[in-house]
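User: Could you check the structure of this?
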Amino acid sequence: MCIRDRDYVMSIKFYTEAIAFDPTDYLLYSNRSACYASIEQYQEALDDAKKCVELKPDFLRGYIRTVSYTHLRAHETSLHLVCRLLLEKK
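Assistant: Sure, the predicted structure tokens are below.
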């Protein structure tokens, strides 16, 4: 329900609680990964995507998220570097 309402922070909280009860449920990691990405927390999204793949190696969506979030995390890191360099020039 929280995801449908786009309350990703609350969804992350619920998925985290659910993971505490069942840390082997790959779908919980997959869904929490999507929530993290929705609020642009790409490192956390990537970590959960990797855990999803570790738990369920034949779950294609886990691989798709891992590749996507790796790219977004790299882009985010590059963007921060460029901004820092531009600020240092001032």
